[in-house]
Amino acid sequence: MRLISLAIFSAGLLQGQSNNAATQPSARREVEWVRLGYYKEITPERWKSRVEQMLRQDTQNPPKKEAVMFVGSATIAGWDLKHYFPQFETINRGIGGSMISESTYYADQLIMPFQPSTIVFYSGDNDTAYGVPTEMIADDFRKFVAKIHSALPDTRMVVIAIRPSIARLAVWDAVRAANEQLRAICAEDSKLQFVDLTPLLLTADGKPRRELLREDLHHLNKDGFDLVSPVVAQAVQAAEAGNGHRRGRS
Q1: Which residue range forms the structural domain that includes residue 209?
Q2: In the list 27, 67, 169, 243, which could disulfide-bond 89, CB 3.0-4.6 Å?
Q3: Helix axis angle, 172-187 to 134-151, nearest 10°
Q4: In whole angstroms, what is the distance from residue 193 CA to residue 159 CA?
Q5: What are 53-82's pLDDT values in tens digits?
Q6: Residue 223: Cβ within 10 Å count
């Protein structure tokens, strides 16, 4: 069993445009990017206020039904959907720090009412970092898929593989194992499409590409999103075509 050490990195809170970063002091906080066993200490209720905030925003500015909905953790929350996916009507349901099981827990409130034509799903990043066992990650994903299929039988899903990062390199073996489980589940379901961005995000010698990550060494920066978004857009296009209609288009 490999020895896994906790990697703690200082994450800069982004303020203003990146070209001002050198001249403006940044508030800084320490983030414990790998917390094995942490999943045992938390419950979905930790996101109650965030979900209530999202629902209030829905009341003020109701999202369109039958759009392309992005669901998952911080990679989703930080994605500029209007910029990268202008050809689609989109809804962002990303909650930074969340796990797969929490997407399932809040699906009835955040997903089902809007009947998305396609769901783009990225989660599992925090699951592996918090020490969720691979089989539990697979089971949690199956439960999410089952809930979506039960309520939204026509909805297709683009499932993005858990991506590599420097900050969480200590759990890369667990990430790869989880991805193989996700890939296998998707292969058995015609409504699921697995998109593995890993080859784009690694160097020739298999290390995470530093130039695609923010200062925190984990989240994608603009160059990272510029690189992966066309691949995801192509997958969404295929999912929408598979639906046999043009829902989700702007």
Answers
A1: 48-242
A2: 67
A3: 40
A4: 6
A5: 999 999 999 999 999 999 999 999 999 999
A6: 12
Q: Is residue 201 part of a domain?
A: yes
Number of domains in the chain: 1
Q: pLDDT by residue (tens digit) across 207-235?
A: 999 999 999 999 999 999 999 999 999 99
Q: How far is CA 139 from the centre of its chain?
A: 17
In a domain, 52, yes or no: yes
Tokens of 167: 């900050």
Measured between alpha carbons, how far is 202 from 181 in angstroms, rounded to an integer?
A: 20
